[in-house]
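User: Please fill in residues for this 430-position structure.
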């Protein structure tokens, strides 16, 4: 099949590359010429394990190409995927400007039956705006061209996106017509030959499924963080509690790990966008508003723990290990590390950070060459991102490097008794 993917960010690039890997001819399109030039030169603008190798292979085999012009390719494709961003507005709602811009261009250009499929994460009801936008452009042209709509939300985990796309738990597809259903079935059949796990539904339900799934996962995280903070007050151990409730098959063990809050491009934005939809319709989603509030409070917990053990932070040197919101990605959007750093700087501390992939942020801090460089003369070590490289450090070396042996473990990856026996002041979450 011939398809176009508009938007070469995280979702668009992974989507286009994986479709190409399974035999489709894919053109990835972006208005950012510098990004397209970099992609043509073999430079990948995001960090995702295995992605560069897959891009290089499919470019070499002429199944994947990059362009700045949808117009040049619209005549040859059967499906146009919209994978542009839907950034958060000040009130928390989703900004659909980029999605509707793609819809307008689609309406200006199509001259044959073509499917417009939305990969971007959009609020329920967006399909109606897309249809109205396309139809308005066709009316301006005085043309009647058949087109179909589909919603095909992504469920990719950053750091494991290739595996998620190539062997998905399920593929959610919202359609309005049998023609759209047949096209999407053809496109996904190579991925799911032995077990066709495509769930077809109406478009509004598909749009809702994406936001509801992320909101549910975010709810589990905030619930466990709330329980962890209560555990500290009553003398319980959140890790024991996690094992106890996670063994209940009705609950399960995933997304029950306490920590310093969730971040990234999906959970914060999607939770807020969904409860804004509720507010707009006069149905406040009180649980989700609390989920968001708990998460924002949780991001300040690490700096509070540092101050608990060091008192005034004026002139203190704090080592932050991990900047990305999770391992195996370079994404720092809404990362807990940024809230921590802001709190520390406001309190008068100096901050030195190390992350295996992220080498800079917009914060005015020092960036170390490795984790031990970051710990030289530090008054506290704060673990924010549970990269594998941080899991088994040389604690005797760290003890010699640090000025004050305070360890704040924001992901509960260290053994408290081991560190305390080695002379550290240790505190985890819960």
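Assistant: Residues filled in for all 430 positions:
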């Amino acid at each position: 099949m011939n398809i176009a993917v508009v938007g070469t960010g995280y979702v668009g690039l992974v989507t286009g590359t994986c479709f190409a890997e399974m035999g489709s001819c894919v053109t990835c399109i972006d208005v950012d010429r510098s990004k397209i030039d970099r992609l043509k030169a073999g430079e990948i603008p995001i960090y995702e394990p295995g992605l560069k190798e897959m891009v290089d292979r499919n470019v070499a085999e002429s199944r994947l190409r990059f362009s700045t012009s949808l117009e040049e390719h619209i005549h040859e494709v059967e499906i146009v995927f919209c994978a542009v961003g839907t950034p958060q507005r000040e009130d928390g709602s989703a900004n659909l400007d980029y999605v509707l811009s793609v819809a307008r261009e689609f309406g200006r250009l199509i001259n044959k039956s073509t499917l417009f499929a939305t990969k971007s994460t959009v609020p329920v009801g967006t399909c109606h705006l897309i249809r109205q936008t396309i139809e308005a452009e066709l009316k301006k042209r005085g043309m009647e061209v058949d087109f179909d709509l589909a919603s095909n939300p992504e469920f990719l985990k950053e750091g494991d996106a290739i595996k998620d796309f190539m062997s998905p738990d399920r593929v959610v597809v919202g359609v309005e017509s049998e023609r759209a259903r047949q096209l999407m079935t053809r496109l996904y059949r190579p991925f799911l030959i032995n077990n066709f796990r495509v769930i077809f539904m109406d478009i509004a339900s598909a749009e809702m499924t994406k936001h509801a799934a992320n909101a549910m996962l975010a709810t589990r995280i905030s619930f466990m963080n709330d329980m962890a903070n209560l555990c500290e007050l009553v003398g319980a151990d959140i890790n024991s509690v996690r094992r106890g409730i996670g063994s209940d098959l009705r609950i399960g063990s995933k997304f029950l790990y306490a920590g310093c809050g969730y971040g990234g491009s999906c959970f914060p934005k999607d939770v807020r966008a969904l409860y804004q939809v509720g507010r707009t319709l006069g149905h406040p989603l009180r649980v989700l508003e609390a989920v968001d509030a708990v998460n924002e409070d949780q991001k300040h917990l690490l700096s509070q723990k540092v101050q608990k053990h060091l008192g005034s932070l004026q002139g203190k040197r704090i080592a932050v290990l991990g900047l990305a919101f999770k391992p195996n990605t370079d994404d720092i959007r809404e990362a807990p590390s940024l809230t921590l750093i802001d709190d520390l700087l406001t309190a008068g501390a100096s901050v030195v950070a190390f992350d295996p992939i992220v080498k800079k942020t917009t914060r005015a801090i020092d960036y170390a060459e490795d984790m031990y460089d970051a710990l030289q003369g530090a008054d506290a070590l704060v673990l924010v991102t549970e990269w594998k490289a941080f899991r088994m450090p040389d604690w005797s070396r760290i003890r010699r490097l640090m000025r004050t042996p305070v360890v704040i473990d924001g992901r509960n990856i260290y053994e408290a008794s081991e560190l305390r026996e080695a002379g550290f002041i240790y505190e985890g979450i819960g």
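For context: The longest strand covers residues 2-6.
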